UniProtKB/TrEMBL annotation:
<dbReference type="InterPro" id="IPR022761">
    <property type="entry name" value="Fumarate_lyase_N"/>
</dbReference>
<protein>
    <recommendedName>
        <fullName>Adenylosuccinate lyase</fullName>
        <ecNumber>4.3.2.2</ecNumber>
    </recommendedName>
</protein>
<comment type="pathway">
    <text>Purine metabolism; IMP biosynthesis via de novo pathway; 5-amino-1-(5-phospho-D-ribosyl)imidazole-4-carboxamide from 5-amino-1-(5-phospho-D-ribosyl)imidazole-4-carboxylate: step 2/2.</text>
</comment>
<dbReference type="GO" id="GO:0070626">
    <property type="term" value="F:(S)-2-(5-amino-1-(5-phospho-D-ribosyl)imidazole-4-carboxamido) succinate lyase (fumarate-forming) activity"/>
</dbReference>
<keyword id="KW-0456">Lyase</keyword>
<dbReference type="GO" id="GO:0044208">
    <property type="term" value="P:'de novo' AMP biosynthetic process"/>
</dbReference>
<dbReference type="InterPro" id="IPR013539">
    <property type="entry name" value="PurB_C"/>
</dbReference>
<dbReference type="GO" id="GO:0006189">
    <property type="term" value="P:'de novo' IMP biosynthetic process"/>
</dbReference>
<dbReference type="InterPro" id="IPR020557">
    <property type="entry name" value="Fumarate_lyase_CS"/>
</dbReference>
<comment type="function">
    <text>Catalyzes two reactions in de novo purine nucleotide biosynthesis. Catalyzes the breakdown of 5-aminoimidazole- (N-succinylocarboxamide) ribotide (SAICAR or 2-[5-amino-1-(5-phospho-beta-D-ribosyl)imidazole-4-carboxamido]succinate) to 5-aminoimidazole-4-carboxamide ribotide (AICAR or 5-amino-1-(5-phospho-beta-D-ribosyl)imidazole-4-carboxamide) and fumarate, and of adenylosuccinate (ADS or N(6)-(1,2-dicarboxyethyl)-AMP) to adenosine monophosphate (AMP) and fumarate.</text>
</comment>
<dbReference type="GO" id="GO:0004018">
    <property type="term" value="F:N6-(1,2-dicarboxyethyl)AMP AMP-lyase (fumarate-forming) activity"/>
</dbReference>
<comment type="pathway">
    <text>Purine metabolism; AMP biosynthesis via de novo pathway; AMP from IMP: step 2/2.</text>
</comment>
<dbReference type="InterPro" id="IPR004769">
    <property type="entry name" value="Pur_lyase"/>
</dbReference>
<dbReference type="Pfam" id="PF08328">
    <property type="entry name" value="ASL_C"/>
</dbReference>
<feature type="domain" description="Fumarate lyase N-terminal">
    <location>
        <begin position="18"/>
        <end position="317"/>
    </location>
</feature>
<dbReference type="InterPro" id="IPR047136">
    <property type="entry name" value="PurB_bact"/>
</dbReference>
<feature type="domain" description="Adenylosuccinate lyase PurB C-terminal">
    <location>
        <begin position="338"/>
        <end position="458"/>
    </location>
</feature>
Amino acid sequence: MTSLADITPPIALGALDGRYRKAVAPLVDHLSEAALNRARVHVEIEWLIHLTDRQVVPGVRQLTEAEIARLRAIVADFGADDIAELAEIERETVHDVKAVEYYLKRRMSTILGEDSAQLSELVHFCCTSEDINNLCYALMVKGAVETVWLPKAEDLLEQLTGMAQELADVPLLSRTHGQAATPSTMGKEIAVLAHRLRRQVRRISTTDYLGKINGATGTYGAHVAAVPGADWPAISNSFVTDRLGLVWNPLTTQIESHDWQAELYSDVARFNRILHNLCTDMWTYISLGYFAQVRGQGTVGSSTMPHKVNPIRFENAEANLEVGNALFDVLAGTLVQSRMQRDLTDSSMQRNIGTAFGHSLLALDNVQRGLAGLDAAPEAMAADLDANWEVLGEPIQSAMRALGAQGVPGMENPYERLKELTRGRRITGDDLREFVRGLGLPEEVEQRLLDLTPQTYVGLAPELVRRHL
């Protein structure tokens, strides 16, 4: 039997790099192993530029603008050949960050000329690997969130907002505990989910991405030994903040503490859980006939039942949200812990960040496609409302309570009287109107309740949508 592992080009082991590659491909620029190596090259080059710009090491000249441009071009032009070269060097070093250092030093002679030997000593100067890696991950995750994940989430919010506004006035029989309950509108129920998701997006969009560059145990020990006269915390701060655009963490062990990552992943996981709630609600509304799934899209609903159009986009999204959240939860729980000044658990753990975001992004894509394939069916919602006149027991007994509080006679025990009429059985509009006429209500109140129907008993639902979305 042919070994699939030997086929060229290599076959993807996971679904994200196989079946779903197109949906998650934008994350490759930010959270892949190649993106990590490109980020390492970027950080190492910027550290070299920073040290020379500030003339931190006495006797070392500043780089020219042309030299800086050529160094930065290494990052801009980083591609397949560079990936292969780094892999070759790493086979010798058996150390990924050291491989980047050697890779850069190979290029110094052509860029820096006769000074290359001297200046190349400032590549990875006073750095432990984590000085580079923590900054890389902060830049990579920041890029993935701000340029890929957040725009996709914002697109979904815009889509949900449009649906909520369009359906703001469409009455819906609510179901609390799965039972018929006070009506709402479909738009208002979608608006609730959109509002919840938007709060999480706001939190995620204000994330602080922390970084540090302070040596093997966070003490600047090597820095002070090498150049005792320099203000190393200030140099570190300006590098992380001004040059890389991150938030400086002044106190760490060998590793940046990763608390910001745990906070971010918890927020994304919470967004995902709300999105999962949306998926299960939409699935249920489809099963109730409140939405029809648009046909004619070239899809097969069922392999054996030609009448079916399955809600697969929402089901697929549910599964991917669950997988993504399993990863986000373990990332958030594990990354904040490290034995003493350093252990290596975070190194392996962080290599799963891209997979976690990949499943979340895939879920977002599926939800958007699922929502785009829906047509509301107001007639089905109206039929459910018309079959549940008992939900008007609430406004009638509430009106009786208000009248009783005002001293109107004959309004005693409103809840119990409505319970006797409605609990455990279906009633018609005629039944309810007959009951209302026998209550002895003031004429204005009686007419208001006689005019009420399950379809019109939606309170301020339409107004809430327009006011808050």
